[in-house]
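Protocol step 6 of 9: fold each sequence in the batch and record its structure tokens directly after the sequence line. For illustration, a two-sequence batch is reproduced in full.

Sequence one:
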Amino acid sequence: MDVLYIVSIKTAEEIANEYKFFNIFEYLKQMRLNAPLQLAYFENKKNNNDLDLNVKKILQIWIGDNKALDIKYCADEAIKITHIIYIKKENNFLKHTVWLQKNIFDDQKNKHNINNNVTNNIGDNDNKTNFNNTINTTTNNNNNNENKQENTKFNEIINDEPPTFFSKILYELEDDDITDESFLVFNENLPELLSYLFEIINTSETNRVSILICDDTGVSTSPALLSVLLLLKYQIRISETIKSCEKLRSSCNICKSLRRGLEKIQKTLDEKKIKRLNNKLHDTTVLSTNF
């Protein structure tokens, strides 16, 4: 007897909604909205670095909280994170990030070169402290065995290179800040964070780049950083990105401090564009014809 296999490009959530299984649809929807990470930007275009014109370069940008750093999410077949940028408020060590901490220095020395202003930071106090915490945490036999199991699990799940991991501590960032303090700290560190992200997007030679931008809660900081990135790189308006993130992630709620600051960045960018346009018009020779 022949067996007919039906391959659907729709998600389980979409199928449940289409066939009016509304209880299942609502359950799947809530699972997606409250997951540790959500896909916030997707791009599929021709890879200019490949001679085969049919080869596409896929870019995925995810946002989320620190639970998304767990190997079961990063190495998932549908996600396969290749680069991680983690903004945290405390110099703490998360048990489920052991597999990342143990790979970070090998990645830096042997596999990845980025701009000097970013490179100098990746191996500095942030990650060195975390690495030392990792060493201290794994001194006894039980923890050593646990870390070996974690790395074994990683090797079994994913055969590609482990994701590059860049972390930054911003102590003053608050998810509910209504003052200017959080934005001032965010803006001060923005060039460094954007430099790392632009380097990944612009210079990656692989056909698939999957970036995870996360912070401890995934409420305010990671969607704010995504908003600036998409504004500068793809001219997507701040309000559009925020609206999209709030729809994708139920906990997303960019604080007033960062929201005001993001609007200022956009306004400054708009003013610069108008100024350049006026300068071009001023310098253009206008030819008039007399009839």
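Sequence two, same batch, same settings:
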Amino acid sequence: MEYAKKEATIRLILLIIDLAIATMIVMSVIDIWKETKKNPIKAFFEGISNAKNNQNTNEGREVNNKETNKTSSGSSSPNQSFSYNGSKPNELSGDVSTTRCITYQMSYSIENPEEIPICLEYQGNICIKKELNCSAEINNLESEDGGNFKFQVNLIQKNTSDLVYSETKEFFLGPKESYFIKVYKIFENLEENGTANSEINCFYNKEKAPTKEICY
């Protein structure tokens, strides 16, 4: 009997202590509620929920980072550029290395053209045999480059505009060099309007000139 009484007394004391602790907790909650204007119980559970969400978010970021690292190791950067001329890009800066080239004809000039007709034989007032000398100076105006030139010299009868003779000249000119084109032709004709008795002009037509490439 005494043991049962002692046990009952101990339980009563523990109950009184639990009630006191519960009362203190309730009073503290009421004080916090008054000061913060927020329900502390609701805030407690929201804090637990936010902590779980943050943990899930961090785990998701770790997974995404791992996947991103795997993808990056097997492909080039989206900012990597490649040049259209086949040269390798600058792997450090990603800049495009491009080369553009322009091809143009080298400069030349035709100077001091001459036409020297000499009648070798007359029949009355008509020249029936005539010698014609055509000449011109071709100058390469480039100071550093040379190349092959090709000109066609056409002899045109003035009163008929007919081509009466043609000759091709090919030659090489170095930088600032010159070449004298010379064409010699004899015409024989008994007619008054024939080639021997008519004015003939010399024309120098360029068929080929060297080219030069500049890259920048």
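Proceed to step 7 once all outputs are recorded. Observation for sequence two: The helical segments are 2-36, 40-72.
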